[in-house]
Design brief:
22% strand, 8 helices, alpha/beta
């Protein structure tokens, strides 16, 4: 897994162009994926306390705030202060963005009703430690939603995916952000991340149960919904 200091530096360097590139490179489909995650998270009309890990510029936190009860409290944490700076210019009043390390969360046990992470879990330096911390701060009966990029199982679709992700994406990302290395790392991190058959048992080992898995867009994005 990547070194957290390197990840912090990487996302600080691409923060100004991050939102624009996300939408360009996914052809805007990332918005639909996040809506699916929000529906899974916000399944109550009551006020909820929600932690969004690796919140980046706050896109998921904003979507959560729009759908949840007005008195819900949404806290987003991220290693990249530059990403958070961009996000603070966008988020509503009931969303608080703060620097934080998922491997050492500064919150008490069981203090959140929901925990989410979108497109960031593959960047954890110590994956099981980060997942364990998210489990710790989630109340019994609470829900974790993980949205992460993946790759198709079909051989032809995988060939097309790799052509786009490993060749075209770094070129476009480097051209717009000025940091080709960042957009070389990001698709490679997707290919290295565990698929569902490895990730689900990991969630179960650290204390989650009833793990449901949904694939979107030919398996390019996967959502895990787990209860504590």
């Amino acid at each position: 897994m990547p070194d957290k200091n390197s990840i912090e530096h990487l996302f600080n360097s691409i923060a100004p162009s991050y939102d624009r590139l996300n939408h360009i490179m996914s052809w805007g489909i990332d918005r639909r994926w996040r809506k699916q995650a929000v529906r899974a998270l916000v399944d109550s009309n009551e006020p909820l306390r929600i932690l969004d890990v690796a919140t980046g510029t706050g896109d998921l936190a904003i979507d959560i705030a729009c759908r949840s009860h007005p008195k819900s409290e949404i806290i987003g944490i991220d290693l990249s202060e530059k990403m958070l700076e961009v996000g603070r210019g966008k988020v509503p009043q009931n969303v608080s963005l703060q620097w934080g390390d998922v491997e050492a969360l500064s919150f008490s046990d069981g203090c959140f009703d929901r925990v989410s992470v979108a497109f960031g879990v593959r960047n954890f330096e110590h994956l099981e430690l980060g997942l364990s911390e998210m489990c710790r701060v989630l109340r019994p009966g609470g829900k974790l939603v993980v949205l992460e990029l993946s790759y198709p199982d079909n051989a032809f679709l995988l060939w097309c995916y790799k052509l786009y992700a490993l060749r075209l994406l770094p070129f476009i990302g480097g051209l717009i952000s000025g940091n080709r290395a960042a957009y070389t790392y990001l698709p490679n991190s997707i290919l290295r991340f565990p698929k569902a058959k490895q990730f689900v048992p990991m969630l179960q080992r650290i204390g989650f149960s009833h793990v449901a898995v949904r694939q979107f867009t030919f398996g390019v994005c996967v959502m895990y919904v787990a209860e504590k």
